[in-house]
Write a structure and sequence with these properties.
555 residues, alpha/beta, 4-stranded mixed sheet, 20 helices, 35% helix, 20% strand
């Protein structure tokens, strides 16, 4: 059996100008990055502004195993299947982060015969967006430390600096560091921290910004520190917003690529869903809606993370109203939620499946709470037995949920035709999208609405640090913003070991921070970290390149 990268390398890609022509984009509206990648111009966005919107379909999932369960694969395959049934569809995805690529998961552009190409480029440097975001973030940090070094006119308190440096790599050694130890001329000594680029506020801002002016305004509003008088200091106060925007002037433009079968795919932005808001950019999604009859997008990890944030943050700010939600489920992940270790999820185990399938039920019910029709995509793996698949189908019937067996990994678009037809049917059903909480609630009330109605928690506890931070948010008048909860992806709770559909558990909020430029309050639960580390045997061990430039081992 061919690996993902071998399948990708054997594919015959269309010139990106031909992919663009399928959806009415001219060469003059493209900014080419080689033959198979292009950025979509601002002129295009302006031209199609008056077009009617297509149907918005969100792809989410149950709680996964550490290996991931094929949400991007399902999204790519669904887009390909839409073309098979004569529907004009575009998929809108996030860009992969180098952290997971070299860490646990390997490549993140789909798999098998449902991939987005060119997968090596997409998984590595792509069009440079991640580097631009990293540079803009770290420019602000450099200017902040320089301001303190050069006399500190604003009276910034080095003990109360909030804005962190970032790097798009899993590097636990940089989580907590000391900077400025080179003597008087090399900077004021202070404690500093690195986070992964995809968890940065700059990433969130890029994904939520409407245009360059909105981007600059949001960047200027980043809360970077407090001064000695306890007053807030923003990025615009150190005059960092203009230069940061200059670094992002190209990165804010969405990227056009294609699936293995030539379906247009817009990839832009890449915030993690367990420590950020987990959705691709508003600009990319809105552009896809103007260019096609169906925009199929995804949100990271399970519906308790990416989908909740997509619906309560992104849709709220962008005025988006989804027509249908696809919940991806696998036998593997359900058995994992039934207590089977990751190393044994490929072994038939109906007892564990019966125990873990309650997790699917929670995700179906949670998505229904938003008033949107739900379709379950049963993503088939080669190790699944007919008995296991029939059991999942029977459970979906009991829950009154539409479902389809998805075999896009092995069959491409042909393996997703039934799913595509179910999604089209769902899009024609009444949809009455309602966010899970009202913006006028307090910070705690919003946290508790998500914790109780989506996670199923019985109570939310707050540390002293969290209580103090919430009070600071309220003092700044930012308590009416949405909440972005950072939580483990492996459980509905904040404990990754509490699998399935736990009940009567409590969530602990250990800290809160204000992403003022992005427009939400970040809530940290459990032991979630904003700078992941590499596993003992990282995926990077298997990645190589030969003298001809051919890459191997990239998933």
């Amino acid at each position: 059996m061919l690996s993902d990268i071998e399948i990708a390398q054997q594919a015959n890609l269309l010139p990106i100008k031909d992919v663009a022509a399928q959806i009415g984009i001219s060469e003059d509206e493209l900014e080419f990055y080689g033959k198979y990648k292009a950025k979509l111009s601002d002129e295009l966005a302006a031209r199609v502004q008056g077009n009617p919107d297509g149907k918005l379909v969100l792809v989410t999932a149950i709680n996964p195993t550490p290996a991931g369960e094929g949400k991007t694969t399902t999204t790519a395959g669904l887009g390909q299947a839409m073309a098979k049934i004569g529907k004009k569809a575009i998929i809108a995805l996030r860009e992969p982060s180098l952290g997971p690529v070299f860490g646990i998961k390997g490549g993140a552009a789909g798999g098998g015969y449902a991939q987005v190409l060119p997968m090596e480029d997409i998984n590595l440097h792509f069009t440079g967006d991640m580097h631009a975001i990293t540079s803009a973030n770290n420019l602000c940090c450099a200017m902040l430390d320089n301001h303190i070094q050069q006399g500190n006119e604003l009276g910034i308190d080095p003990r109360r600096i909030l804005f962190k440096r970032c790097l798009d790599m899993n590097d636990r050694a940089l989580r907590n560091i000391i900077v400025g130890l080179g003597g008087k001329v090399n900077g004021v000594p202070r404690e500093d921290h690195f986070i992964i680029t995809v968890a940065s506020e700059v990433m969130a801002i890029l994904c939520l910004a409407a245009d360059i002016d909105d981007l600059k305004r949001r960047l200027g509003n980043i809360l970077i520190a407090y001064n000695y008088a306890g007053e807030p200091v923003y990025a615009k106060d150190i005059k960092a917003d203009g230069a940061m925007t200059a670094l992002l002037k190209d990165a804010i433009k969405p990227n056009l690529v294609q699936t293995l079968e030539g379906t247009p795919a817009i990839m832009h932005g890449g915030p993690f869903a367990n420590i950020a808001h987990g959705c691709n950019s508003v600009r990319a999604t809105k552009l896809a809606l103007k260019l096609a009859d169906y925009c199929i997008t995804e949100a990271g990890f399970g519906s308790d993370l990416g989908a909740e944030k997509f619906l309560d943050i992104k849709c709220r700010y962008a005025g988006l109203k989804p027509s249908a939600i696809v919940v991806v489920a696998t036998c593997r992940a359900l058995k994992y939620n039934g207590g089977v270790p990751k190393s044994e999820v490929s072994i038939a185990n109906l007892e564990a499946l019966e125990k873990g399938i309650e997790n699917l039920g929670v995700h179906i019910e949670n998505m229904r709470k938003y008033g949107i029709p739900v379709v379950v995509a049963i993503n088939r793996f080669g190790t699944d037995t007919d008995g296991e698949l029939r059991f999942i189908e029977s459970y979906c019937r009991q829950k009154g949920a539409d479902f389809a067996l998805s075999e896009v990994f092995g069959k491409g678009g042909d393996g997703g035709i039934e799913l595509a037809e179910k999604v089209v049917e769902a899009c024609e059903k009444p949809s009455n999208f309602i966010p899970i909480y009202d913006m006028n609630l307090t910070v705690k009330e919003k946290i508790e609405a998500v914790a109780k109605h989506i996670y199923g928690a019985s109570k939310v506890n707050y540390t002293t640090a969290a209580e103090k931070a919430i009070a600071e948010v309220q003092k700044l008048g930012a308590d009416k913003l949405p909440v972005c909860i950072a939580k483990t992806q492996y459980s509905l709770s904040d404990n990754p070991a509490l699998l399935g559909a736990p009940k009567d558990f409590e969530i602990t909020v250990r800290n809160v921070s204000l992403s003022n430029g992005a427009g939400f309050t970040v809530v940290y639960t459990g032991d979630i970290m904003t700078m992941p580390g590499l596993p003992k045997a990282p995926a990077a061990h298997n990645i190589d390149v030969d003298n001809s430039g051919k890459i191997t081992g990239l998933f």
